[in-house]
Each structure stands twice: as structure tokens, then as C-alpha cells.
Write a structure and sequence with these properties.
Helices cover 30% and strands 22% of the residues. By secondary structure, the protein is an alpha/beta fold. Strand 14, helix 7 and strand 15 form a beta-alpha-beta unit. It starts with a helix and ends in a 5-residue tail after the last strand. The structure holds zinc ion (ZN).
């Protein structure tokens, strides 16, 4: 999958929390992976939230009295405040400035501003251009619609041997910015691509979910709460993966969840200690973990919302993100999935004294300094630490290994009646 190519296709589209830009974006993703499109009707009440009217824009610009275009949505869709109402009229500079948003500290950046739930209109402009504006009579046109339509989501599903499922989520609903709301979906698509390639021997089922942030995620939860509660045993929200910050993991609220255990094992082996406790402030993992929902979903990211200067500006562009970084995050999620797939409680089966491993062909025949005892030690460790309570990840943590790398040794130890497999700890 060529991440940069897809990023370039998705970047220019005018997305919001509803509208044709979302549909167009999912149509781009659908060229690469199978996705079903879900539409939830405007005004649907989802717990405390309501799906807003669908917003679409055809054109939006400001012209001066010489008919010269000052700002045009066509040049950069961040120029128009998200969810701006329809408007046409003339006004002087003082009146116009009430509708202009700019950032003095970042004079070359167009800010990203929205007003989803209050009806107003506005334009966003570089401060350097803002200060150049002269007293004049300006013509403003915004051809936008707020109509009863729907909110669009996309979903993929891979059936494993078990109905129990791992939920992998990212949110998408910003216009032309790259790290915020495109890098996460791209990391997710890479994980999805891996799962599609390995779908013959998956133990769990996998649900891939792409929703507009907050209202999209809440409306999905509202419409699927029973099956989510019944089947989801873990998963991850993936976002802000394209910048240069180190990878961070925010734990699910249920501290001993499989999601937390599986990814923590991988990160610790890689000496990445950026693991943080759950907080109700953050990305869309907060909706999965909140009261009444209680799904054990963690969040993997790099910078995170508000944690970089380019955040919510036109400087969060294609050049700002690094496709290598996007792919590194997907690799960690894939490794966590491999841990989830392999994790079971281990019971000791050989229960009197140490087994003589050379009889089983599991110990090097020639002893001494040069003998490769690594495999034998792995067998002894797995067998020796097994107690019917610790699972593969627990034991891997004790011996400083990534849990999934023990897969073959566990198989051999099982075949040789040293251990047996109990339940998983999910
Ligand atoms: Zn954002």
C-alpha cells in the first residue's frame, strides 16, 4: 500500500463531520481495502448527542470592490470556517473582520476553525494577508447547505475463528490537514492490509472503524452497543501518527485489559516507556471507555491533539508528516495484535522436577561454552513460570521477550507434554 499516494489523494478533499467530502474520502480508501459505508440520519438522537444537519459547500470567497478575489475556499478549504452558514452580502472592513480568524503568532498559517453546533459563518486567513486588508466594500459569498441528510462512517470486518473481536478505530473528518485525522486512518489502513493478508489463521475477529470524531463515534456506539459489549475484548484508537514525536500509548480505563497488556509488552521491550493512564480528556478512546460503554480500548499516537505547533493550521500539511512514522505505528499495532492472538494462560503439565530436555531434543547435545542454549532456556522459562495463572504475555514480560516470538517454543513445549494451554485472560 502506497501511503503517500493515498495521503495525496485524501489531502485536498473538504471533509467535515458530515457531507460529501467524507463519502469521497471513504471512496478513495475503498479502492485499497474493503469497507462498508454506513449512513446515520441527521437529527438522530444518540444518548446526549444529536447528529447535526449535513453540511456541504460548493463555493466560498471574498472579493474586494475591484472584483479581486481576496480569499477563496477553492485555494485551500481551511479558508472557510467548518459548518459556515450560507451567506451573500456586501460589508466594510470592520464588519468583515468580525468574521475573520487569524493567528498573529503564526503569520503564514491559515487556522482551522469550526462551528458545528452554533450557526455562523467565517473565513480563516494568514495573519500576513489579514494585516494587508484595506478599507473597502467587500463582497462575501458562501454557497453552503445545511440539510437533513446523514452522517457517514466506514467499517471493515474480518471474521476470525472466534466471534470475540478486536476493534481498531481511527477518526476522519478534518479538511486539508495531514497529521490530524489522516495519519491515523492511514496507519489503520496498513494494519487492515496486514490482517487481510493473514485472515486464514486469525483467532479473533477484527472490526475496522473509521468515523468522524466524537459524534461519529458516539453514533456508532449508540447503534451497536449490544454487539460491541458482547464481542469486543480489546482494541486501539490510532491517531496523530505522522509527526516526529515518540510513540505514546494511552491505556484503556480497565487497567488489566488485554489491549494494555499486549501493547505494553511490545513497547517495554523496545525501551519505550511512554505509557500513560486513561484520562477522560483526549481522542475518541474516551467514548469507548466512558461510563456505560466500558470497552477496553487504548489509544496509540505520537504527538496527540494540541501537542505540536502546526496543529489545527494549514502548516499541518503533507510535508509535515512522514510516511515512515505512520508505518512505524502500524507495525507496533500489528505486533500487539500478534500478542493478543497468541495469549493464553499456561498450565504446567510436567509437574515433578525439571524435565530432561535433551531426551526431547530440546537441549543441545554438546554442552559447553559454544552450545546454543537459547531455545532450551526459552522452554525452561515458559514451563518453569507456568502456574495456571500467568499467561504468555506475563511470562514474556518476566523473561524480557515479545510474547508473540515465543509462539513456536510454546507449540513445541505443548507437543512434548511440558505445558498445556488454559483460557486467555481477556
Ligand atoms: Zn483536530
Amino acid at each position: 500500500m502506497d501511503v503517500l499516494k493515498i495521503l495525496k489523494e485524501l489531502f485536498p478533499i473538504n471533509r467535515s463531520i458530515t457531507g460529501d467530502g467524507l463519502r469521497e474520502s471513504f471512496a478513495v480508501m475503498k479502492k485499497y481495502v474493503p469497507l462498508s459505508i454506513i449512513e446515520y440520519k441527521s437529527k438522530m438522537q444518540c444518548y446526549d448527542w444529536q447528529i447535526p444537519l449535513e453540511w456541504n459547500v460548493t463555493k466560498a470567497y471574498i472579493k474586494d470592490s475591484n472584483n479581486k478575489t481576496i480569499i477563496d475556499f477553492k485555494d485551500n478549504n481551511l479558508h472557510l470556517m467548518g459548518y459556515s452558514t450560507n451567506f451573500e452580502g456586501y460589508m466594510d472592513l470592520t464588519q468583515l473582520k468580525k468574521h475573520l480568524y487569524t493567528i498573529k503568532e503564526q503569520p503564514n498559517a491559515i487556522p482551522f476553525v469550526t462551528s458545528y453546533y452554533e450557526k455562523k459563518w467565517g473565513f480563516c486567513i494568514e495573519y500576513n494577508k489579514y494585516i494587508e486588508l484595506k478599507e473597502d466594500q467587500y463582497y462575501v459569498l458562501i454557497d453552503s447547505t445545511h440539510k437533513e441528510g446523514s452522517l457517514t462512517l466506514a467499517e471493515g470486518y474480518i471474521k476470525g475463528q472466534s466471534e470475540k473481536e478486536i476493534l481498531l478505530h481511527s477518526y476522519v473528518g478534518h479538511p486539508s490537514m495531514a497529521n490530524d485525522q489522516l495519519s491515523g486512518p492511514l496507519s489503520l489502513l496498513l494494519v487492515y492490509e496486514y490482517l487481510l493478508k493473514h485472515n486464514d489463521d486469525l483467532r479473533y475477529s477484527y472490526r475496522i472503524l473509521l468515523t468522524p470524531e466524537t459524534i461519529g463515534t458516539i453514533s456508532y456506539i449508540y447503534n451497536n452497543i449490544d454487539s460491541l459489549k458482547k464481542n469486543v475484548i480489546g482494541g486501539y484508537v490510532i491517531c496523530f501518527t505522522g509527526d516526529q514525536s515518540e510513540i505514546k500509548y494511552k491505556q484503556s480505563k480497565r487497567i488489566d485489559s488485554l489491549s494494555n497488556k499486549a501493547i505494553t509488552n511490545i513497547m517495554k521491550i523496545e525501551n519505550n516507556e511512554n505509557i500513560y493512564p486513561y484520562s477522560p480528556i483526549g481522542c475518541d478512546e474516551r467514548h469507548f471507555n466512558c461510563h456505560g460503554i466500558d470497552l477496553p480500548i487504548g489509544c496509540i499516537m505520537r504527538s496527540g491533539p494540541g501537542n505540536y505547533d502546526e496543529y489545527h493550521t494549514s502548516l499541518d500539511n503533507i510535508e509535515f508528516v512522514d510516511v515512515e512514522k505512520i508505518s512505524e505505528v502500524s507495525k507496533i499495532v500489528i505486533e500487539a495484535i500478534k500478542n493478543i492472538e497468541i495469549n493464553d494462560v499456561i498450565n504446567p503439565k510436567h509437574t515433578m522436577c525439571e524435565p530432561k530436555l535433551d531426551k526431547l531434543g530440546l537441549y543441545p547435545k554438546t554442552a559447553g561454552k559454544l552450545a546454543n542454549k537459547e531455545k532450551a532456556f526459552e522452554v525452561l522459562n515458559i514451563w518453569g513460570h507456568s502456574d495456571g495463572k500467568k499467561d504468555v504475555i506475563d511470562i514474556a514480560n518476566l523473561i524480557n521477550k515479545k510474547a508473540y516470538t515465543l509462539k513456536n517454543t510454546i507449540e513445541e513445549s505443548k507437543k512434548n507434554n511440558l505445558i498445556s494451554i488454559g483460557d486467555n485472560n481477556a
